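Long-time lurker, first post. I've been practising inverse folding by hand and with some scripts of my own, and I keep getting stuck on stretches where the structure tokens seem ambiguous. Below is the full token string for one chain I'm working on. Before anyone asks, I'm not after the true native sequence, just a reasonable design that respects the backbone. If someone could post their per-position residues I'd love to compare against what I wrote down in my notebook.
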């Protein structure tokens, strides 16, 4: 049975969609049967995989409303033979209003994915940057959460709110845990990046992925060409970073299950770190 992972953080601009697209592609390269679910009405995961809005008629919106079976909405073999995509459009934003009076509104996505999860090794859900009904659906459907964490000021602010949300969702989905925390936009030359990385490791311990995703121009360019980074530039540090994360994730999923409870309720203090702006490429750092 495939493992369902929601990629979530209510803070925008932390690399959720970048992680969803490129981790899914990297898993597919590793011959893991992977389904990427675009649950963000912006549809950037869909376009980032090279699927234009006029290339599909149904997607996540129609599946959530029960108008289309999920099997009919999934696009197979996107970029790679092992990568399938459940695309979305801006119509998905209306689902929160249309489902507000539905008694089963929180379990719509879980019920839909149940029909196909045996076909995949990993199902990744790209969540919107909010804690609304769509994100709730993703958390209820998921076995665990991957939290992308931007290595910049205020990155850790609000994480306690996300952890509290995860705790509340456990009323419906008791097994929901944190699969891992992925440090993104890391620059080892900057004190702030190192401080955020250290605070995250103190806060989440071994659940922080060893690999960090560096700032990388090629990684930023890839979505505009509708390609995952492993297609756009396999030799780039961004591609090598996500391939390394995929290997870590595969190893974690193969290991015996362990408890996922954080045991923390407060946000680490990053106010002591200093800032220094940079947009240059850096080499992946596996031991920040």
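-- Answer (accepted) --
I ran through it position by position. Result:
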């Amino acid at each position: 049975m495939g493992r369902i992972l929601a990629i979530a953080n209510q803070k925008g601009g932390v690399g959720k969609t970048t992680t969803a697209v490129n981790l899914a592609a990297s898993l597919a390269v590793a011959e893991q049967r992977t389904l990427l679910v675009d649950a963000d009405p912006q549809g950037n995961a869909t376009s980032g995989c090279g699927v234009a809005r006029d290339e599909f008629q149904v997607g996540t919106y129609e599946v959530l409303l029960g108008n289309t079976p999920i099997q009919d909405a999934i696009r197979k073999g996107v970029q790679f033979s092992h990568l399938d995509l459940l695309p979305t459009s801006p119509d998905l934003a209306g689902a929160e209003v249309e489902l507000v009076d539905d008694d089963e509104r929180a379990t719509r996505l879980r019920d839909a994915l149940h029909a196909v999860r045996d076909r995949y090794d990993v199902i990744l859900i790209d969540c919107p940057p909010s804690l609304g009904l769509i994100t709730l659906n993703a958390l209820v459907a998921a076995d665990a959460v991957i939290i992308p964490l931007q290595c910049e000021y205020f990155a850790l602010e609000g994480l306690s709110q996300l952890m509290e949300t995860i705790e509340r969702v456990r009323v419906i989905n008791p097994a929901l845990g944190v699969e891992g925390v992925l440090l993104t936009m890391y620059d080892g030359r900057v004190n702030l990046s190192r401080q955020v990385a250290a605070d995250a490791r103190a806060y989440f311990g071994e659940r922080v992925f060893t690999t960090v995703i560096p700032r990388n121009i090629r990684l930023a360019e890839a979505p505009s060409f509708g390609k995952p980074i492993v297609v756009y530039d396999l030799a780039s540090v961004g591609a090598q970073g996500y391939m390394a994360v995929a290997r870590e994730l595969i190893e974690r999923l193969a290991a015996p299950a362990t408890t996922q409870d954080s045991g923390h309720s407060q946000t680490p203090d990053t106010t002591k770190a200093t800032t220094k702006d940079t947009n240059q490429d850096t080499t992946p750092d596996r031991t920040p």
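A couple of notes from the structure itself: The chain is about 35% helix and 10% strand. The longest helix spans residues 237-254. Happy to go over any region you disagree with.
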